[in-house]
Amino acid sequence: MILTGLVTGALLGFVLQRGRFCITGAFRDVWLSGSTRWLTAFGVVIALHAIGYTALSALGVVNAPVDPLPLGAAVVGGLIFGVGIIAAGGCATGTYYRAGEGLVGSWFALIFYALSAGAMKYGPLAGFTTWSRDQTVGATTIDASLGLPAWVVVGVLSVGVGLAVRHHLRADAARPRTAGLPARRSGVAHLLTEKRWHPFATAAVVAGIALAAWPLSTAAGRVGSLGITTPSAKLGNYLTTGDLTMVDWSVMLVLGILAGSLVAALASGEFRVRVPDSTTTLRAIGGGVLMGVGASLAGGCTVGHGMVATAQLSWEGWIATGAMLLGAGLGVRWFIRTRDGREAVAGSSPRPTLTPVDTAEGAGADAEPAPQRTRPAPVLTKVGD
């Protein structure tokens, strides 16, 4: 049954790559340009997943208890992780799918993410991680704390996200359409390999995959949905010790993300090995270490907390995710605005700031000249798509 993890991961990796869906880009847009378009897409994942999870819980399909809130670990770990994803150029899943695209900087970030998470969870720092996360307060879920049915909280969340979606869809409709070259493919092939995917449509598919992961992983003996940090640590543990007990549904999931993103990148013509300069490489390595340490302390990443625990209405999930957003703001200040300011002082024009239309290109992309940042897929889109 663990092979369903590989299939689920491959589907997720394909969708993430084709939809250019990365939470780092969503967080970075908020601090760089004030845009909330991708953050709203992130909210769509949470809201739809929350609706589905609450329904599955009511039907007795899933039973995943929520642990008490380790407030200090959630805040500190979230801040560290948020800084790390900016340094590395991608969140947990973003780093995986960009590694599948050929970004060497993401390879380095991924390796050190797995190694540092392994050290925090299974290695010499495991005791510190356990102690930190044992310092809890009594709160578990938002609905329990407020004394409200889960459906009431989910309803309020869904209405809020729905209003944000309406705002951005109206803005999209008012934006002038740009002409592109004729598509080379048609039908499903065009949709899967050429057409630019709307962030909200991508988010809906991601939410569906996250929801399907609950019964699939439960059938394999693992009660949970999507998760990246712990399986990454397990994968690193297996590769260094040969311990087969580490290979479970979740490990197959992350391997599937790599495979699925590789297939998507090859099919769309976006695969290209891109080697970063030494500065970007060191930043990617440092970012990977921060990601592993931060996610281990916080108890999850932008997937485990940001997409899953938030859907469970977990206080830990929401607080840790908020801390990640704040940490990303610090990372933007340290790694992006400071860098651009130095270039301006030196007499060169600052590097182009990524617009809200696209997510970040990842750690390895920063080493490339600006013209090479343009991806081929949007150019091949038909007029009106």
TrEMBL record:
<feature type="transmembrane region" description="Helical">
    <location>
        <begin position="144"/>
        <end position="165"/>
    </location>
</feature>
<protein>
    <submittedName>
        <fullName>Predicted transporter component</fullName>
    </submittedName>
</protein>
<feature type="compositionally biased region" description="Low complexity">
    <location>
        <begin position="358"/>
        <end position="371"/>
    </location>
</feature>
<feature type="transmembrane region" description="Helical">
    <location>
        <begin position="104"/>
        <end position="124"/>
    </location>
</feature>
<keyword id="KW-1133">Transmembrane helix</keyword>
<feature type="transmembrane region" description="Helical">
    <location>
        <begin position="200"/>
        <end position="217"/>
    </location>
</feature>
<keyword id="KW-0812">Transmembrane</keyword>
<dbReference type="Pfam" id="PF04143">
    <property type="entry name" value="Sulf_transp"/>
</dbReference>
<feature type="transmembrane region" description="Helical">
    <location>
        <begin position="281"/>
        <end position="305"/>
    </location>
</feature>
<feature type="region of interest" description="Disordered">
    <location>
        <begin position="344"/>
        <end position="385"/>
    </location>
</feature>
<dbReference type="GO" id="GO:0005886">
    <property type="term" value="C:plasma membrane"/>
</dbReference>
<keyword id="KW-0997">Cell inner membrane</keyword>
<feature type="transmembrane region" description="Helical">
    <location>
        <begin position="249"/>
        <end position="269"/>
    </location>
</feature>
<comment type="similarity">
    <text>Belongs to the TsuA/YedE (TC 9.B.102) family.</text>
</comment>
<keyword id="KW-0813">Transport</keyword>
<feature type="transmembrane region" description="Helical">
    <location>
        <begin position="71"/>
        <end position="92"/>
    </location>
</feature>
<dbReference type="InterPro" id="IPR007272">
    <property type="entry name" value="Sulf_transp_TsuA/YedE"/>
</dbReference>
<feature type="transmembrane region" description="Helical">
    <location>
        <begin position="38"/>
        <end position="59"/>
    </location>
</feature>
<keyword id="KW-1003">Cell membrane</keyword>
<keyword id="KW-0472">Membrane</keyword>
<feature type="transmembrane region" description="Helical">
    <location>
        <begin position="317"/>
        <end position="336"/>
    </location>
</feature>
